[in-house]
Design goal:
about 325 residues, alpha/beta, 11 helices, 12 strands, about 20% strand, globular, binds adenosine-5'-triphosphate, binds magnesium ion
């Protein structure tokens, strides 16, 4: 695939999500994804934000073929994902990988670092000979800035940051085009978070990766992402360039998220109250019970799409927002 120019103006669509609905078998009343549509451009970092339970992980899992969608379609590099076709899913995983939130849960602690990183090569790059694999292993260790002396260390005997580096290395091993990072730093010590974020940022540039970066922390997304998609209850409420979202947001929910950023003070031991019971609705705008701009119409229908230079939002009241 062509390299991107410095201004990131190449807008080839690498992933297209169209009108996707997804419900879990044991929870058919709630749509985890509700008529969800989005395009991801080649070589960009798309930050995906929204409160707990809004469907961020579900979307990631649907994109790598781990969770089957009920309707709509997802296509990667022009090919629709065929969830029931094992061969097609294997092919998809050769290009799309996921990094998970908790490196202590996602890696087998008894496996050596070498084996953790080699495992996807054995399964997804069967044509690779032993020597080639060892070379790749060394390349990966360089990418994640870890000394080769760690190769024989059990992954259970690593620090959180080191483990997440290994998780990143494992995802990179097969040279994927798209990586979905699902809250990759939220389980880590604050002091380690920045180094992992920097690593991801460097790798994305160096390897021309496309990245979906899931987080509920807008400040983290602000640091990494080119565009930001704000989700609410399985739907998109707003998507746009970082500047659109931070300086010209058009949705009250985005404003609410932005306003809550400074409240997170890492220096203070601030106890955050348990999640209040939020009332959601299957019809109309899911944010209306918390929205100071909401009117009768917000109860009836989900708003139509509004668009301005690629900045998209769904709200009846954007013009009233100060
Ligand atoms: N395996 C499952 N079975 C049933 N329901 C599920 C399952 N996984 C997720 N859900 C439900 O689907 C919805 C979306 O969940 P999801 O995990 O995608 O949210 P999220 O945005 O990743 O949240 P968080 O920020 O807490 O990780 C929620 O209502 C959740 O309860
Ligand atoms: Mg999640």
């Amino acid at each position: 695939m062509e390299k991107l120019d410095a201004l990131n103006t190449n807008r080839d669509v690498i992933l297209k999500i169209e009108n996707v609905d997804l419900t879990y078998d044991n929870n058919k009343d709630t749509k985890a994804l509700d008529d969800f549509s989005m395009e991801i451009y080649n070589g960009e970092i798309l930050g995906l934000v929204g409160e707990s339970g809004c469907g961020k992980t579900t979307l990631g899992r649907a994109v790598i073929g781990l969770e089957e969608i009920d309707s709509g379609k997802i296509s990667f590099m022009g090919n629709d994902i065929k969830y029931k076709d094992k061969k097609a899913i294997k092919k998809l995983r050769q290009n799309v990988q996921m990094i998970f939130q908790d490196p202590f849960l996602s890696l087998d602690p008894t496996m050596t670092v070498a084996n953790v990183i080699k495992e996807p090569l054995l399964y997804l790059r069967k044509e690779m000979k032993g020597k080639e694999r060892d070379l790749r292993l060394k390349e990966v260790m360089k990418h994640i800035n870890m000394d080769e002396k760690f190769l024989n260390r059990k992954s259970g005997n690593l620090s959180g940051g080191q483990r997440q580096r290994v998780g990143i290395g494992r995802a990179l091993a097969i040279e994927p085009k798209l990586i979905i990072c699902d809250e990759p730093v939220s389980a880590l010590d604050v002091s380690v978070q920045a180094s992992i974020l920097n690593l991801l940022k460097e790798l994305q540039k160096e390897l021309n990766l496309t990245m979906i970066f899931i987080s509920h922390d807008l400040s983290v997304v602000n640091y990494l992402a080119d565009r930001i998609c704000v989700m609410l209850k399985g739907k998109i409420c707003e998507i746009g360039n970082k500047k659109d979202i931070f300086e010209n947001s058009k949705h009250p929910y985005t404003r609410y998220l932005l306003e809550s950023i400074p409240k997170i003070n890492l220096d203070e031991e601030e106890v955050i109250e348990d999640v209040e019971e939020i009332e959601y609705f299957s019809i109309g705008c899911p944010f209306r019970s918390r929205c100071k701009y909401a009117t009768e119409i917000c109860k009836k229908d989900f708003p139509e799409k509004s668009e301005e230079d690629g900045h998209i939002w769904y709200c009846y009241n954007s013009d009233d927002m100060k």
